[in-house]
């Protein structure tokens, strides 16, 4: 006699909605696990220092004693007592207004030259981009100081024509312009972006303009520039932000002093001097926040003006 067990009832499956919620929960947990290193880095290495810097900007802090709360006195001192601060602002704005347009114009000119279908385009593009790769290095700044010294390459070249050049980097009248020239020389990054933009312009647009009798100059201003305005705007914003933060060239060329006669006293260089030479970390933090505000205002003005001259849409 065999005994058969009663059939077991099938296990009830959870509703589809509950299964979906459980799956989403597991996916969210996995996402947080993979995002955890970035979140920890952002909080500890970015957000934390930002908040600490803002707090220190409201204190008198010399890195050796505890911060002393002084409210907005650092900002008052900055705009009412510190004459070198205004010199740093003047030098930095002059550098930005000169270097950014010249770099973009030079980068666009080289990009248009490379866009003419030259053989070995990859080689030329790499060579022209190389200075940008070395742009923030100390070695390039030292080389630039030697090039523009009294017995440097520039003056040796001028002597061939009977011209006795000055010591460019030790003259208050010329020192800043040597740094502008260095910035223009590092045109590789915007040049590559311009070249990519030029390759996206359809050839039939140029052909149509040529049929209408447009000269090369007319095609440049009526076809190339309007279609490149989004690229120009992107390069302008990025290069402007980078120019406001320039530090290494001025530090090396002036031996960290901003000289001669504070003619190369960049904002970041003066901030560094206040923080690590004068040990006024609270004052330097206030300067850093003002620089953030300046960059934000300039960027906002750029975006506001873009609606009047930047043309988006289908290039075809």
Topology diagram in text:
Blueprint: H1 16-56, E1 59-60, E2 68-69, H2 73-80, H3 83-114, H4 121-133, H5 138-147, H6 153-159, H7 175-185, H8 188-199, H9 203-211, H10 216-244, H11 248-253, H12 267-276, H13 281-309
Antiparallel strand pairs: 1-2
Helix pairs in contact: 1-13, 3-7, 3-8, 3-10, 3-12, 4-8, 8-10, 10-13, 12-13
Please characterize this protein's 3D structure.
This protein is mostly helical. The protein folds into 2 domains: 22-69, no CATH class; 80-309, MetI-like (MetI-like fold, Orthogonal Bundle), CATH 1.10.3720.10. It contains 13 helices and 2 strands, in the order H-E-E-H-H-H-H-H-H-H-H-H-H-H-H. The protein has a two-stranded antiparallel sheet. Strand 1 (59-60) and strand 2 form a beta hairpin. It is globular. The termini are far apart. The mean pLDDT is 86.
CATH topology of the largest domain: MetI-like fold
Unreliable residue stretches: none
CATH superfamily of the largest domain: MetI-like
State the major sheet.
2 strands, antiparallel
Number of strands: 2
- Radius of gyration (CA) equals 29 Å
The SS-based structural class is mainly alpha
Helicity level, as a percent range? 55-70%
Number of separate domains: 2
- Integer average pLDDT: 86
Shape: globular
Portion in strands: under 5%
Q: How far is the first residue's CA from the last residue's CA?
A: 88 Å
Query: How many DSSP H or I helices?
Result: 13
Strand order of the largest sheet: 1-2
> CATH class of the largest domain, anyone?
Mainly Alpha
């Amino acid at each position: 006699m065999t005994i058969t067990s009663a059939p077991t009832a099938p296990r009830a499956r959870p509703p589809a909605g509950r299964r979906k919620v459980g799956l989403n929960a597991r996916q969210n947990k996995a996402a947080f696990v993979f995002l955890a290193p970035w979140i920890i880095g952002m909080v500890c290495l970015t957000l934390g220092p930002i908040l600490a810097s803002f707090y220190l900007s409201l204190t008198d802090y010399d890195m050796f004693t505890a911060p002393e709360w002084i409210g907005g006195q650092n900002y008052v001192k900055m705009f009412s007592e510190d004459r070198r601060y205004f010199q740093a602002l003047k030098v930095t704005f002059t550098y930005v207004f000169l270097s950014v347009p010249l770099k973009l114009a030079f980068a666009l000119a080289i990009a248009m030259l490379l866009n003419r279908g030259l053989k070995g385009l990859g080689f030329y593009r790499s060579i022209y981009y190389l200075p940008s790769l070395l742009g923030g290095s100390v070695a390039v700044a030292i080389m630039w100081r030697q090039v523009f010294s009294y017995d440097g390459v520039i003056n040796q070249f001028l002597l061939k024509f009977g011209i006795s050049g000055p010591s460019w980097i030790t003259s208050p009248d010329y020192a800043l312009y040597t740094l502008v020239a260095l910035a223009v020389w590092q045109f590789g990054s915007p040049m590559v972006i311009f070249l990519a933009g030029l390759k996206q312009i359809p050839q039939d647009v140029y052909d149509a303009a040529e049929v209408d009798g447009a000269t090369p100059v007319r095609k440049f201003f009526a076809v190339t520039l309007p279609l490149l305005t989004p690229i120009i705007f992107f390069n302008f914003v990025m290069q402007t932000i980078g120019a406001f933060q320039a530090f290494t060239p001025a530090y090396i060329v002036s031996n960290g002093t901003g000289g001669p006669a504070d003619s190369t006293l960049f904002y970041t260089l003066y901030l560094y001097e206040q923080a690590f030479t004068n040990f006024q970390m609270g004052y330097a933090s206030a300067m850093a926040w003002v620089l953030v505000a300046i960059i934000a205002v300039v960027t906002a003005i750029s975006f506001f003006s873009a609606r009047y001259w930047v043309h988006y849409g289908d290039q075809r």
